[in-house]
Amino acid sequence: MMKAFFPISALIAMAVTSLCVSSCSTPPPAPEPTFTTSEKKKPKITIHNNSSRKIVVGVEGREKRFIPVPARSSRVVYLKSGVYKYAAAAHNTRTISGYKSFAPNRSYTWNFGVN
After folding, report:
1. 54 lies in which domain range?
2. Which first-to-last residue range defines the signal peptide (predicted)?
3. Using CA atoms, how far apart are residues 82 and 60, in angstroms rounded to an integer?
4. Dmax over Cα atoms in the chain, in whole Å?
5. Phi, psi for 37 (deg, rounded to 5)
6. What is the pLDDT of residues 83-105, one digit of tens each?
7. Could you tell me the sign of the dihedral formed by the alpha carbons of 93, 59, 45, 54, in that order?
8. Using an 8 Å Cβ cutoff, are 83 and 24 in contact?
9. Does the pTM of the predicted model rise above 0.70?
10. Residue 40's beta-bridge partner residues?
């Protein structure tokens, strides 16, 4: 009976030792982050002021901004995608307002002619 006890106790000792060694070993490396080429970019909006007066375009949606645009010139802005309420005004003119939707990875041209 003593002979059978020794091999079993040796196996148990080896199993306990291997558990201790494996639990004390360094963890496996973390997986590398993956990047996709379909990263969403903010829409590019070119605002043209075709009038002889400076205008201010106000937008309110995912961002709130007031964008001054000099007379007969343009400005390029980048906004977060989404639906925006807008208003464009110049001194002594009626305000133009409405809603505009901008999608990611797109370019827009916005023309204003306030006189």
Report:
1. 44-112
2. 1-30
3. 10
4. 109
5. -85, -5
6. 999 999 999 989 999 999 999 99
7. positive
8. no
9. no
10. none
